[in-house]
Amino acid sequence: MKQQELLLSAAEKVKKNQQNLSEDPNRLQFHLMPPVGLLNDPNGLIQFNGTYHVFYQWNPFETAHGSKFWGHYTSEDLVHWQEQPPALTPSEWYEKNGCYSGSAVESEGKLFLFYTGNVKNEQNERETYQCLAVSDDGIHFEKMGPVILLPKGYTAHFRDPKVWKDDGLWYMVLGAQTLNEEGCVVLYSSPDLKNWEYKGPIAGSGMNGLEDFGYMWECPDFFRLGNKDVLLVSPQGLEPKGHMYHNIFQSGYFIGNLKPETPVFSHGDFVELDRGFDFYAPQTFEDQQGRRIMYAWMGLTDEDEPFQPTIEHGWVHGLTLPRELKLKGDKLYQQPLPEMKKLRKAKTFDRQLTLEDENFSDLGLDGKVSELKVTFNGGNAEVVELTIRDHVKIRFNKSEQLFTLERESFQNGKLEKRSCTLSALENMHIFLDTSSVEIFLNGGQETFTARFFTHPENENLQLNIKGQAEMRVERWCLSLPE
Ligand code: FRU
After folding, report:
1. How far, in Å, is the centroid of ligand 1 from the Cα of 2?
2. How far apart are CA 130 and CA 115, in angstroms?
3. C-alpha of residue 382 to centroid of ligand 1, in Å
4. Of 71, 64, 85, 60, whose CA–CA distance to 9 is shortest?
5. How many CB atoms lie within 10 A of CB 157?
């Protein structure tokens, strides 16, 4: 279809769904979501001429995956967002089955988008093209077509370009699958963003001592933090191992050192970024204050996906809150940005509590859209458990040194859980939206992200303690300020 027709039919879909959205109790209050249809990966994150841009994988026509557009939001403060016309539509032969994920960079005052043109040919075989689109104003994009064709040695699962500049040269990482069906990340370099030279794989299953590490690696990201290089990637096909890798697909990182000329990336172990249910395809950017900020898709293509109740209201999925990344040793810590304090409407609770062996259901913490901070002083109780809206339970068990998140499956109501080991619980910072929870533990050492769907009237928050706990509890009502 022609670009104009695609834009018009998407706009029509958006308009038709407005009423439907306004009737959805699960519509999120302070997260980015599609106005209609399905959202997946965050794309093209950048602060361009002072304005923050978040693009996202968007199928405006169905609440299922299909030929993706790039939806587009802009913001001056990372809190208030304005919907912009879609930046990319799958209108050309080299992207006709989707303008897939990619990234943005600024060069000489222009905004450059790199993305994957996904094509299914007449034999229903996949083709992949790494494409470029350029903009002067950050809103209207001119497509320049493919700049990289599939090199030898890889299947057509070759996508998701992430571009950055280092020492006067541009670099790009791409997620790939070798002909032996092993996932990896490959590196390109370019003097001018148009001519790209293939350098080779820098990490992957079967490389650097990593055995059986997935059949495809998606959405790589690469950046320097302090004096270390970080490769973020979303591998597919990992088997569960202890408390790790229980979602259908993973997202995590390697810390190391890249020598791009050779190219060799010597790195440590893969570390999962988030320990909850709904977190995938994270992407980062550096803003003008020099902060490394990450967004992820607060969802996954798992068996629960078609059962999300928002589908009845014509939309599905959202993005996480923006999180700042910092490196402590070889561990990435994630923190909600200070800008999120603008969401605080009123502080309704701030008390130092000593609690013992009881269920506290009337503390005054109830509410659906809120921020909670719990800081433990002294040692931990044997068990600290918070039940959110009678639906999600988070629990720290001291003797097991385990933190667990439990919720009911959207598909069949069965309890499902995710856990991670934690030697002590020092603090929890929790953001509750109408149908999502994001938990930052110990200043961002671990995070848990999940969607959940419960009765819209239910606002209960209950704290259970086994043993004795001393803590400061703070609570704010959150809402988007005018
Ligand atoms: C990750 C992903 C990417 C791809 C995009 C398509 O969720 O599969 O690899 O570019 O989604 O929407």
Report:
1. 23
2. 6
3. 42
4. 60
5. 19
Coil vs helix vs strand at 339: helix
Per-residue DSSP letter, 167: T
Q: What is the pTM of this model?
A: 0.98
Indicate if ligand 1 lies below 6 Å from the C-beta of 305.
no
Q: Let me know: does 31 contact 320? Beta carbons within 8 Å.
A: yes
Q: For a ligand 1 pocket test, name from 103, 217, 218, 233 the mutation site with the most ligand atoms within 8 angstroms of its C-beta.
A: 218
Tokens of 223: 């950046």
C-beta separation of 46 from 104 below 8 A: yes
Indicate the domain borders of the chain: 3-336, 345-478
> Which protein residue's CA is at the shortest distance from atom 8 of ligand 1?
218
- Nearest ligand 1 atom to alpha carbon 234: 1
Q: Are 420 and 275 in contact (CB under 8 A)?
A: yes
- The model's pLDDT over 175-206, given as tens digits with 9 standing for 90+, comes to 999 999 999 999 999 999 999 999 999 999 99
Structure confidence at residue 165 (pLDDT): 98
Atom of ligand 1 nearest to the CA of 68: 12
Is the C-beta atom of 68 inside 6 A of ligand 1?
Answer: yes
Tell whether ligand 1 has an atom less than 6 A from the beta carbon of residue 219: yes
281 close to 218: Cβ distance less than 8 angstroms: yes
Could you tell me how many residues make up the chain? 482
41 belongs to the catalytic site: yes
In the set 41, 229, 278, 433, the catalytic residue is: 41
DSSP 186: E
Question: What does the pLDDT read at residue 397?
Answer: 97
Strands 461-478 and 370-376 turn out to be antiparallel
Cβ–ligand 1 distance for 174 under 6 Å, the answer: no
Domain 3-336 CATH (choose: 2.115.10.20, 1.10.10.10, 3.40.50.1220, 3.60.20.10): 2.115.10.20
According to CATH, the topology of domain 345-478 is Jelly Rolls (2.60.120)
